[in-house]
Write a structure and sequence with these properties.
The protein is an all-alpha fold. The protein contains four helices and no strands. The radius of gyration is 35 Å and the shape is elongated.
Length: 91
């Protein structure tokens, strides 16, 4: 086994790793991030959803008033039909 051949290979390898480190450490390079138009649309949709209230008061206020007055009535037939429709969808 020739020891000097091993040291020559090792020296070549070490010089290549130093050169690689010098090349990648350049201060002139910067990373850039670009957001696609779809990504921008998704961001604006998320912002709109975050700003909107969880409960739509214009729809719930009349029902709340009817419940407080005791005048809210549920049509049993239509409720049963909707319940069966949902059950059949889930099957």
């Amino acid at each position: 086994m020739r020891v000097e051949a091993y040291t020559q290979v090792q020296q070549l390898y070490q010089s290549q790793t130093v050169n690689k480190g010098q090349r990648t450490g350049g201060a002139g390079r910067t990373d850039k991030v670009q957001i696609s138009s779809l990504g921008k649309d998704i961001q604006s949709a998320r912002a709109a959803v975050a700003e909107s209230p969880d409960i739509r008061e214009e729809l719930t206020a009349p029902i709340k008033a009817q419940l407080q007055n005791g005048t809210y009535e549920v049509d049993n037939d239509s409720f049963a039909e909707r319940l069966l429709e949902k059950y059949m969808e889930m099957r």
